[in-house]
Write a structure and sequence with these properties.
- The chain is mainly beta.
- The chain contains three helices and 17 strands.
- Strands 3, 4, 6, 7, 9, 10, 12, 15, 16 and 17 form a ten-stranded mixed beta sheet that branches. Strands 2-1-5-8-11-13-14 form a seven-stranded mixed beta sheet.
């Protein structure tokens, strides 16, 4: 039997302050609420004390944001899917936003170790007027430590309920996907960043978000393997491939900063845990 962790987060706006009520079962916790920028925006760090997932483990996070609440969620470290000979390890995240609320889902990278059987599912349910910025960063194996991704499978999906679904299945033996110029072209890190809204994003605002992302990409070292698009009227997406996590994360953080200013007129306050 694997370890099962359940975490429920309930954010509410009390006056000008976003407050959190949480409850957990098993090895998944949230640290204290922090307000490094304004009482309106609640920062929380998620902690998984075991440090990784193996076959049969399951982590379930459910967060609900009440009207006008704003939360930024990140993690204390990378999410690690370790080698297993059993069933898959699964991480599932569901974020439900009421009208006027905002969420920033910004976990540190996921590492798929050789021999893992991992699944990651992120689902956003956005009411009219709610908005979300989120990312998904994946590293395959540990090439720098001579531990390449040679065996195993990793499944990932990101969904804006009813409107946008991004799903991928990565098999370590699928060399056409991982090494072909039409696929990952030998790179072993990827990132997807999105801005999503519960109502269509106006054309002018959507163009501003695309222009902001493309301006950052143009001056970045990964400009040849990154691009921004608007697959739906309520979603703007940036996708990038890189040789390692660090430059991928560097690009996503830069675009996140630009989008926060463009969409919400908010300067980006980097979570303290990213600087340790």
């Amino acid at each position: 039997m694997g370890w099962h962790g359940h975490l429920h987060l309930d954010y509410r706006c009390a006056g000008e302050r976003t407050i959190l009520h949480d409850r957990h079962e098993g090895p998944l916790r949230v640290l204290q609420s922090l307000y490094p920028e304004t009482p309106t925006v609640c920062h929380n760090v998620l902690v998984h004390p075991p440090g990784g997932l193996v076959g049969g483990d399951r982590l379930d996070l459910h967060a609900r944001l009440g009207s006008d609440a704003h939360a930024l969620l990140t993690t204390a470290g990378a999410t690690r899917f370790y080698r297993t000979t059993g069933e898959a390890a699964v991480q599932s995240v569901t974020l439900t936003l009421e009208p006027g609320s905002r969420v920033e889902w910004l976990p540190l990278e996921t590492i798929a170790y050789s021999g893992c059987l991992g699944e990651s599912h992120v689902r956003f349910e956005l009411a009219a007027g709610a908005e979300a910025i989120g990312w998904d960063v994946l590293a395959l194996g540990l090439p720098a430590s001579d531990q390449p991704f040679e065996r195993g499978r990793y499944l990932q999906s990101v969904e804006l309920a009813g409107r946008w679904l991004e799903r991928g299945a990565i098999e370590a033996t699928d060399k056409r996907l991982l090494d072909s110029p039409l696929g990952w072209a030998g790179r072993r890190a990827s990132g997807t960043l999105w801005f999503a809204s519960g109502t269509p994003i106006g054309e002018t605002r959507r163009d501003s978000l695309l222009a902001a992302a493309r301006s950052v990409v143009e001056g970045h070292s990964l400009n040849g393997t990154a691009g921004a698009s608007a697959p739906q009227v309520d979603v703007v997406v940036l996708r990038v491939l890189g040789p390692a996590v660090e430059p991928v994360m560097d690009l996503l953080v830069a675009v996140w900063r630009a989008w926060r200013e463009t969409a919400w007129a908010l300067p980006a306050t980097v979570p303290r845990v990213w600087r340790t």
